[in-house]
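Notebook p. 47: complex prediction with beta-D-glucopyranose.
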Amino acid sequence: MQDVRRWNIEEIIANKRKGCKDSAGTEPLQRDQSMKQSELEQLLKSMSLEEKINQMLQVTGDFYLGKTVITGPMRENGFTEESVAQAGSVIGLLGADVVKKVQKAYMEQQPHHIPLLFMLDVINGFKTVFPIPLGQGATFEPELSRRCAQAAAKEAAVAGLHVTFAPMVDLVRDARWGRVMESTGEDTYLNSCFSKAMVEGFQGSDLKEPYRVAACIKHFAGYGAPDAGRDYNTVELSEHTLREFYLPAYQAGIEAGSALVMTSFNTIDGVPATGNKWLMRDILRDEMGFDGVLISDWAAMEEIIYHGYCEDRSDAAKRSIAAGVDIDMMTGIYSERLLELIQNGTVEESLVDEAAMRILELKNKLGLFENPYKDADEEKSREIILCREHRELARECARKSFVLLKNEGILPIRKEQKTAFIGPYTDNHNILGAWSFIGTSEDAVSIRDAAMEVLDQSKTTFFQGCPVLDDTVKLEGFNSGEGAEEESKAATNLEAEKVKQEKMLQEAIEAAKEADLVIMPLGEHRLQSGEACSRAEIVIPEVQMELFRKICQVQPNVAVVLFNGRPLDIREISGKAKAVLEVWMPGTEGGHAILDVLTGTYNPTGKLTMSFPYSVGQVPVHYNEYSTGRPHVPGKDKDRFRSKYLDIPNTPLYPFGYGLSYTSFEVSKAELDRREMKLGQVLNATVKIKNTGETAGTQVLQLYIRDVKASVVRPVKELKGFCKVHLLPGEEKSVTFEIREEMLRFYSENKVFESEAGEFQVFIGVDSSVEDYERFYLRK
Ligand code: BGC
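Predicted complex, structure tokens below:
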């Protein structure tokens, strides 16, 4: 290794700017602009093989903070002091001053003073937390998510981060899977719109600009389809289904320029994604055109051994590099095995060069060679993180994400009413969702906090009623590091807990009797959804259901406010309550946003992007299913040999696209300006929409198309466009959707995306259950 002790970071940066040779003797680098490709190549050539391999290692921040000592087990896992000291990237180290300190120490000892990359999961916000992605999908406003991603990037960047492991764009159809909360839902087209918007929000048009972070599309591919909804389970997708429904959202993110892609934990066609050459080289790189950094998911490189696909760590290294995985997240397999594999001729050094080059290119795109601290700045952190503007954005996004599932005229709250808030989410600040370990619950606004600001306190009361979970349940969150919230704790003294709970319940019942209206904030614990949080029974915890039943016995006007990270079986709730408002895990400004909607200051506009099943037995249930040979025919659902259940309907409780408003709308049948469409032509489909109620409101008009007959069967309908229309009471507008041939393409029997001539049906409505359609013919 070179003697680099005479260098310090100020000199390194200054000399690089001036164009001096660095300690390893590399040629002058022009620092005012980023490195040219030829300079990067020169740098790569001057690096030792070990140095290149170490660039491909990612470790956690603990190593640099002296919290993890490399002892026996760590060594067995392939980590050595040398490899960790030279690792090219780090996960989970943040805070401007910390990042600067670590970067400085790292670069001073790195033989070529190459900067370190700082990465973390910034999913739905950094410290200002926005609604979980499933909620963001319900806004049907990708532009809003673009702004949220931009704000999150800004907060993350000043805290020293360079890369976020987001957006997650896995298509999700099974509500048992806890990670549905990280996706925008069950629709390919909608997910693609959000994928693009979020990548653009994080990255902007140039990663070197201030406050940008690199995005990482994940998890490639098909992670959202684990068998039986059990996390990390086998995925069984036909190539057709994979290409037609699952790949497009990744493709949209790649086309938007996502700098990274992350592999998934699952197998595709029997081969684990992280070692799947066909998936990563042929599909991702060659077909989809991805030329950025491919990172393995956490320890996924080692897991391919446990899948039964590799015999040992050397084999795992060989297969992963053959598949083109550039960074090994947290296994040490590359740094431990690649050198030997190259020396004994099993692996070509050119594969390491290729991976190391992509990592250098990413560092260069971020401008780290000229400014290794990028945006890390303590003072700016204080100014930007949780600033008013970001909080306002969080409030806007939250209220637009709420979905009014039912309302028999009891919402909004009327001023003169005596209102009791009863339920464990009444004054609960743990409303940020499972991924928000940077955001803290103390910064979140609870329903009670917000209600105290806007409601007449003499007419409003608040009661917890019961705990979120019964006293035997213990859940664990992700890290318990700085800023982590208190996790749920199982009660230690069960007897005392019982007495306490009985008292809570009685107080709540008394309050319910006296009120004109009861608002019940109920739901899943935030740690019941997210990674490794699959549930077989997707219901509200029983302790809360008992409270709900008791309150309904004494009070007819119950409105439930639902907190959750996934669609739930809420049949009983939606049967008994007069109103149900879905608020997901709404984020930092949750309480304010909920009160905006409960008081009618904001008229709800959100629409479901995942169907709420009638019962778990229907799952996976999604609107864009195939017709089957025994299709749904109205009135014939219970015929003997139909595709049906004996005990429940085929249709979900609430379908994709569904959501009510405080006003009502009438939508006319679609009118088409032509019956026949030829290639290159545009067909206009128009509806009239009228606000027939007494309040101004916004409706999400949705365009669905069905391809009636094709060389492979097509869904009964598919979302192809949407548009938000604001209408004053009595106001009517005409809305036109343009239909083009590209929108009719699908993965055909010829194994390409193409349209086929024939009949199409056009539906325009306010949710996916719209039945009226008009038809047209595509002629070729
Ligand atoms: C998750 C990824 C995440 C990674 C790093 C994994 O367990 O599957 O989504 O980006 O950890 O935190």
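Notes: The first helix runs from residue 9 to 18. Residues 1-6, 27-31, 479-486 have pLDDT under 50 and may be disordered.
Next step: compare against the earlier run before touching the bench.
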